[in-house]
Amino acid sequence: MRRETRQVRDECQPKGVQPLDQGGQTKYTPLHPTGQATAANYRRRSVVSLTHDDRPWGCYDVLDTGACFQVKRICVSPGHRLSYQRHERRSEHWYVIAGHGLVTLDGTERHVRPGDAVEIAVGAAHRAANPGAQDFVFIEVQRGSYFGEDDIVRLHDDYARCVEAELTDSAL
């Protein structure tokens, strides 16, 4: 369920920022080192509109967007995973910031932890999973010409969202 957020769930709440209501849209400003949001912080470009979306596997927040990029903070709940998917019009760069995860990239699995990065080329099949007991959180930088959800080609999905023919679990 996609929505402009006013209250973000605690596990997806960005740290070090304060929500500000700007004409029905929530924007965030970094906190001053004293813990106070300042007008100077708000005037800088560091304020971004935050779109929050809850998914069966966790949630994501859009942190910034431009003509050729989009930045998301993705939180995968323990025991869940994203669909095994590919994109035709964008590449992705993932940077792990919390928890431990299992990334599948073109059929090869790799364990990742905070500080690790993953490069996903246009057309590469990929998935992020959380086999741990704590949230798995990473920053996703999408680069390309289009960032709509209809650029997702799901190859396998635990939540029955596949339109394409599903692969067997053994092929993943």
Tell me the major beta sheet: 7 strands, antiparallel
User: What's the pLDDT, averaged over the residues?
Assistant: 77
Low-confidence stretches: 1-13, 35-47, 164-172
Q: Based on CA inertia axes, which overall geometry fits?
A: globular
Helical stretch tally:
1
Quickly list its features.
172 residues; mainly beta; Jelly Rolls; 2 domains; seven-stranded antiparallel beta sheet; three-stranded antiparallel beta sheet; 15 strands; 48% strand; disordered N terminus; disordered C terminus
Structural write-up:
- The chain is mainly β and 172 residues long.
- It folds into two domains: 1-55, no CATH class; 56-172, Jelly Rolls (Sandwich).
- It contains one helix and 15 strands, in the order βββαββββββββββββ.
- It has one helix spanning 39-43, and strands spanning 2-4, 17-22, 25-30, 48-49, 51-55, 58-65, 69-76, 84-87, 90-98, 101-105, 108-112, 117-120, 126-129, 136-144, 152-156.
- β2 and β3 form a beta hairpin.
- The model is unreliable at 1-13, 35-47 and 164-172 (pLDDT under 50).
